[in-house]
Amino acid sequence: EAEVAQSPRYKITEKSQAVAFWCDPISGHATLYWYRQILGQGPELLVQFQDESVVDDSQLPKDRFSAERLKGVDSTLKIQPAELGDSAMYLCASSFTGALGTEAFFGQGTRLTVV
Amino acid sequence: AQSVTQLGSHVSVSEGALVLLRCNYSSSVPPYLFWYVQYPNQGLQLLLKYTTGATLVKGINGFEAEFKKSETSFHLTKPSAHMSDAAEYFCAVSAAPYGNKLVFGAGTILRVKS
Hints:
The complex is a heterodimer.
Chain A: E1 5-7, E2 10-13, E3 19-24, E4 31-37, E5 44-50, E6 53-56, E7 65-68, E8 75-79, E9 88-95, E10 105-106, E11 110-114
Parallel strand pairs in A: 2-11
Antiparallel strand pairs in A: 1-3, 3-8, 4-5, 4-9, 5-6, 7-8, 9-10, 9-11
Chain B: E1 3-7, E2 10-14, E3 19-26, E4 32-38, E5 44-50, E6 56-58, E7 64-68, E8 73-78, E9 87-94, E10 103-104, E11 108-113
Parallel strand pairs in B: 2-11
Antiparallel strand pairs in B: 1-3, 3-8, 4-5, 4-9, 6-7, 7-8, 9-10, 9-11
């Protein structure tokens, strides 16, 4: 069964260091999402791509976070420098289209701990 | 803007008992509503969704939910809880013009007692 792949599953980094997460969506899915889930809260959208273009990054802290999806397939989310408050689960999801109501399939996430 | 409120951060039921997880939403336009389940250190799996049409929606693993516009609610139920239902459940909403962006509630942790 096709699934969204994320790596690494776990990451521990020191504050002020750079960290990157990778996501490979389900083949053929044009829309890719990065969500952040802080412990005890629901996921919050950071950025949404349609193919290689960003369609929503209104909640992305652009002073330290960046995201790219250069060829419209896999994607990388980077944090530089990491802060203690960035400790969270980072979830990648993909959907066939960005049309309203289209099911989004989630990866297993990357759990980031900043020390 | 849209928002979701899940009443009760923790719900405990006995095995075989009715499961009821509450969700209320706020949306200025007709919403699409979703329930997702998350097991520890895993991603989210879709249980069911309401888009248009029939207001009683059936999902996987015996769960169902009913969209009640007058009450702005989308509560999740299952007639008989199983131990394997223990997990965290998230209600989410999306609506135009925000496209397929999901806005999630804070989640409800379901505990099933033997």
